[in-house]
Amino acid sequence: MEADQSPERTPDGHFVVVRGRKWRATDPSIPEEPAARLRSHLMSARRAVRDALDQSDARAEAAARARVNRAKVALGERGTPWWEQSDRARRERWEGGLAELDERAPDV
To answer: Does residue 11 fall inside a structural domain?
Structure first.
């Protein structure tokens, strides 16, 4: 897959396929601006995991992994599948996750 291509999706749109492996797709109902902010939080948290591992800092690693999980839940990639949630529950999920991540990491 080239950098400017989107990954292959399953016919139902619930999963993306990367190198033959299925991963839950981001909730398509999240508007682009908040989705971009959530992805920014996710990438920042992943970098924090890497840095904590490099420094052998178990507490920082746990905190960073919690941020990764919160971002992935907000994006709909973990937790209750987004296609099984009402529109209201989906919106509450990503809005709540974004508010929490913004509060924890205002520099993103």
So the answer is: no
Range of the domain at 53: 29-104
pLDDT tens-place string over residues 17-67: 999 999 999 999 999 999 999 999 999 999 999 999 999 999 999 999 999
Strand partners for 24: 15
- Helices then strands, counting H and E runs in the chain, come out as 3, 3
Our count of domains for the chain comes to 1
Q: Which of 61, 71, 12 is nearest to 41 (CA)?
A: 71
Tokens representing residue 46 in the block: 């992943």
pLDDT digits (tens, 9 = 90+) for 59-98: 999 999 999 999 999 999 999 999 999 999 999 999 999 9
Structure tokens at 95: 């809005």
* Closest residue by Cα to residue 38 from 1, 5, 82: 82
Name the E strands within the chain.
8-9, 15-18, 21-24
The tokens of 83 are what? 């296609």
